[in-house]
Specification:
- The protein has 322 residues and is α+β, with helices and mostly antiparallel strands.
- It has 2 domains: 169 residues, 2-Layer Sandwich (Ribosomal Protein S5, domain 2), CATH 3.30.230.10; 141 residues, GHMP kinase, C-terminal domain (Alpha-Beta Plaits, 2-Layer Sandwich), CATH 3.30.70.
- It contains 9 helices and 14 strands.
- Strands 1, 4, 5, 6, 7, 8, 9 and 14 form an 8-stranded mixed beta sheet that branches. A 4-stranded antiparallel beta sheet has the order 11-12-10-13.
- Helix 2 packs across helix 3.
Length: 322
Amino acid sequence: MKATARAHTNIALVKYWGKRDQELILPQTDSLSLTLDPFYTDTTVEIDPTLAADQLSIDGNQVDPSKMGKVERVMDTIRSWSQQNHFARITSTNHVPMSAGLASSASAFAALAAAGAKAYGLQLARRDLSRLARRGSGSATRSIFGGLVQWHRGHDDQSSYAEPIMEKLDFGLEMIAILVDTSAKKVSSRGGMQLTVKTSPFYKAWKEVVQTDMSNMLAAIKDKNINAIGHIAQENALRMHALTLSADPGFTYFDGDTIKAMHLIDDLQAAGINCYYTMDAGPNVKVLYDRRDRSLILQRLGDVFNPDRLVVASAGPGVTYL
C-alpha cells in the first residue's frame, strides 16, 4: 500500500529530440544516456481508499490538480495494469533543479513509476518499469537503469524501452555540470520538440544523424574510448540545438554563459586537454572527460565560473527502493 523509490537523472549523449506518438511518448529515434550520481528524486506513493483523486506534493508544495496530467497518465496506467482503482498520496522530493535542462523529469517519473508499481503490488521486470516511466517522460525510461543506457525507439508500446549498455562503468568517464542558470526554462522540452518536428526543414536529416551517431557511440563505449564518446556527444548536441534554431519560429536554450562555457571547452581542447561538452534542453553545460584530468579541468573551469556552480558527476545507479 506504500512504497518509496529513488531514481537519478540522466544526460543524453546521443539525444532524443522529437516524438512520433505524444500519448505513449514513442520517440523518433533511439538515444543513449549516462545516469548521474549527484542528482536524484525520492518519491513515496501511498494508496488511500478515501481519496477521490491522486494528490501530489513536490518539495513540500501541493500541486494543483490541473497540472498533474502526466502524473495521472502514469498513475492511471498503474491502476490499469494492477486492476485497482484506488487513488494515492504522492510525495516527491527533488535533489535536482527543476525545468533547467538537468533532466529533473527523468528522475521524477522514474521514481514515480517504481514507487507506484510497488505500492500497487505490481511485480514488473525492469524493461516494463522502463515502459511505464516512459508514459510520464521520455527520458525517464532511461533513468530506471544506471550507467550507460540505450533507449530503443521501437515501433509500439511493447518495443519502446531502455536497457543498460554498461551499468557499472569500469573506465574513467566522468562529467562536470556547469550550472550557469538553474531557473525554469522559457520553452519546455515537450513544446520545443513538437515545434521542431513540425517546422524544421532539417528534421529528416537529424534522424539519419542519430542513427549514425548511435552506431558510432556503441562502438566507442565498447572500446572504452572516452575521447570518441566525448566527440560524438558534443557533435550530436550541437546538431540537436541547431534544429531549434531552424524551427519556425526559431529558438534556443543557450544564454551568454552557455556560449562562454562552450568557448572555454574549445580553448581547453586546443590546449591539448581532452574534454567535451553537451547540453540538453536548457542553458547548463555538461563536460565529459577522463577522471584522471578532473583536477586540471576543475581548476580551469573555476577560473571562469564560480566553483560552487561546478558539480562533479560520476555514473549513477538505477532505481532503488528506500
